[in-house]
């Protein structure tokens, strides 16, 4: 099977949001459920993806396509944008942001932060995720950033194997307290992948 990796387009936003919801491990439901009357979490995220000039935008997303269909995605941006800003404080209930304080404070400085990596279930196991990460490494180098970084649930064994296989190392634990909408135990890991020839850097 052949696929191509290319920048996402605005028309892809509903598909990107659905993929991101599948990969979020309950985080999208926790943040967006019942936030906008009449709209599902995926519908709210699709609006966010279509908004240009902000981190969680299709502009910062690459996709894998097979026969013009989006089969995988990777959303990333400079790690300096990973955090709770005033716009988020104005939009999300304070208790939801408080619950995720450690998640949003965990980052590796001067890195390209991989916010979402998702592959359609029927296309998994074909090295698509690995190839998306390879493309992100080139993107980070072009931006003169020193590493890639991400946060993954500790009990997501499949994702952990992929990230370790592609050069990521655990930096520290991230506290995410249990919640009925987040069906994961033990919190998460902040991970980084130093780019070739560069030493790991101190995290915040």
TrEMBL record:
Q: Name one GO molecular function term.
A: acyltransferase activity, transferring groups other than amino-acyl groups
Domain spans labelled N-acetyltransferase: 3-196
Its domain of life? Bacteria
Classification of source organism: Bacteria, Pseudomonadati, Thermodesulfobacteriota, Desulfarculia, Desulfarculales
Q: Which Gene3D superfamilies match?
A: 3.40.630.30
| Protein name per Swiss-Prot or TrEMBL | N-acetyltransferase domain-containing protein
PROSITE patterns membership? GNAT
Write one Pfam family the protein is assigned to.
Answer: Acetyltransf_1
Write the record's keywords in alphabetical order, separated by commas.
Acyltransferase, Transferase
Which InterPro entries does the record match to this protein? Acyl_CoA_acyltransferase (IPR016181), Bact_Acetyltransf (IPR050832), GNAT_dom (IPR000182)
Look up and give the organism this protein is from: Dethiosulfatarculus sandiegensis
């Amino acid at each position: 099977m052949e696929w191509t990796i290319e920048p996402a387009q605005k028309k892809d936003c509903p598909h990107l949001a659905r993929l991101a919801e599948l990969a979020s491990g309950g985080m999208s439901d926790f943040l967006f459920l019942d936030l906008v009357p009449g709209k599902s979490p995926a519908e709210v995220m699709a609006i966010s993806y279509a908004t240009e000039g902000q981190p969680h935008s299709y502009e910062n997303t690459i996709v894998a396509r097979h026969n013009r269909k989006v089969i995988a995605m990777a959303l990333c941006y400079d790690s300096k944008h990973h955090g709770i800003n005033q716009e988020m404080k104005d939009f999300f209930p304070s208790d939801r942001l408080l619950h995720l304080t450690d998640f949003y404070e965990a980052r590796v400085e001067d890195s390209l932060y991989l916010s979402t990596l998702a592959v359609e279930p029927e296309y998994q196991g074909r090295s698509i995720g690995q190839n998306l990460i390879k493309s992100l490494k080139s993107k980070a180098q072009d931006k003169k950033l020193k590493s890639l970084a991400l946060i993954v649930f500790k009990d997501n064994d499949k994702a952990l194997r992929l990230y370790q296989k592609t050069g990521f190392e655990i930096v520290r634990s991230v506290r995410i307290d249990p919640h009925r909408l987040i069906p994961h135990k033990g919190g998460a890991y902040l991970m980084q992948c130093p780019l070739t020839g560069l030493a790991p850097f101190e995290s915040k």
